Queue: 2 jobs
Job 1
Amino acid sequence: MTTTRTTPPPSTHPNTLTAHELALQAAGTAVALGPRLPAPLRTVADQLIRSASSVPANLAEGAGRAGRDRQHHWRIAYASALEAGSHLRLLLASGAVDPGQARQTLALFDRVRALTWRLLHPRW
């Protein structure tokens, strides 16, 4: 008999789930921007897609780990969110992406970074 867990494991911090959901939204938008970019910007688009998709992946993997291993994945997620934001800002400055969509995605990555920072530096 197989059971499906409907709640996170007891060791999973509640912010992990919120950060992961927001990271999925941000990464989904960033990934959708990539294919629309002109050929000269394909390498930046590829880096954006890789770094953006790394954020929810590392948050999820970290949630399934414990101790220093968990912290390691959350640090990678934080840094990948910084990297994705940098690539997106470059594309925004170049005029290659829709400003409204880019700013909304940047705001999501900013929120993900804030939540991930709290995971790495809890107040309790």
Job 2
Amino acid sequence: MAHHTDNLSAGTQVVSLVEVRGTNNSLVHPRGAVGVVARTPAVAGEKFLVRFPDGFEFSLHRGQMEVLKHFAVKRGEVPWPEVDAWRKELHCDFEGALAETKLPERPDYEAANRFLIRARRDMAKGVSLCC
């Protein structure tokens, strides 16, 4: 089963877990093809745009792809010392973020609600949320 973390960044290398098909349902890339996330969805649950080495772009749901490094680890293609070093690096990153991040005691639910309502209304009107 795929590692379902929706917060992938543009530039993340991914492995397609499905066949990538073009027009007329023709096979463009087999399952296991590696691509790069070119665009992330604005809304959770929507598709990511993935660009393959030949320039072909295809939209995939998060469950239809796996982060390349996770895929290699699961298949046993990464030696244990490298996996363990990565684990320790991530642990240090998390500890550093915990020590340096100043979060309020409680989330500001009202501010979050105002933002989400405004964003949804703007999106319905076709207003761009960025730039």
